[in-house]
């Protein structure tokens, strides 16, 4: 059997579609199909069920996937040993919640280039979960500790959220002095059915009957609405505390969560991933004071 066949098999299994897997590999779809067909012929079984919606592993394909991942991990480990541990090069894709990714990490990406000139960083700061098994990201920052999958997990930092409004809004609408006063104000929050993790359901920690009058699907969008004076919103303290025009309201009310740094078990020997994870951890520890309420 040809290892390239296994490599292409892993790409399709992780991506779930021939076309996108071929694009990611930089080859034609017909070439990819030939490799999969060759592997199926050599193994004497069908590995994928193909439909108009994509390619799904058969029972035999799922069993082979486990073995192929194990072989891949050994090959990566061998390459790391041969190549030495000082070479940090290649591409690392980091998936992150939009608040952390855009407001905190993006302005600090220059640190990675300074430390590792041959390392290319791709940051994907979007409000969604990332599939590490399908290689949507090499490193993921998650809200809450994941409990499924073959993952390496490291607690990155706890953080706090509070109620904020702009001075212009408070001049117009008045200052709430009790949680019940929030019922008489414009409240800004998430689009409920687009909340991608239960950890983000924190609005009722501020008021038991919270209902968002303005709903925005991203933390960055909510923050922009609060800054513009649209109403009162729940903002990350590390995003809001530097804005002199924002007022933190009802300081006895806050929500606390934690960011977790996660990567797939198979990447434990990838020097580029370990170097990026360690530097990210260092950057956060250096500015840990930003993440909790004063």
Automatic annotation (TrEMBL):
Domain HTH lysR-type intervals: 1-58
One Gene Ontology biological process: DNA-templated transcription
GO MF annotations in UniProt: DNA-binding transcription factor activity; sequence-specific DNA binding
Pfam annotation, one family: HTH_1
InterPro entries: LysR-type_TF_proteobact-type, LysR_HTH_N, LysR_subst-bd, WH-like_DNA-bd_sf, WH_DNA-bd_sf
PROSITE patterns: HTH_LYSR
Gene3D superfamilies, sorted: 3.40.190.290, Winged helix-like DNA-binding domain superfamily/Winged helix DNA-binding domain
Keyword annotations: DNA-binding, Transcription, Transcription regulation
SUPFAM superfamilies xrefs: Periplasmic binding protein-like II, Winged helix' DNA-binding domain
Family indicated by similarity: Belongs to the LysR transcriptional regulatory family.
Name listed for the protein in its UniProt record: LysR family transcriptional regulator
Organism: Notoacmeibacter ruber
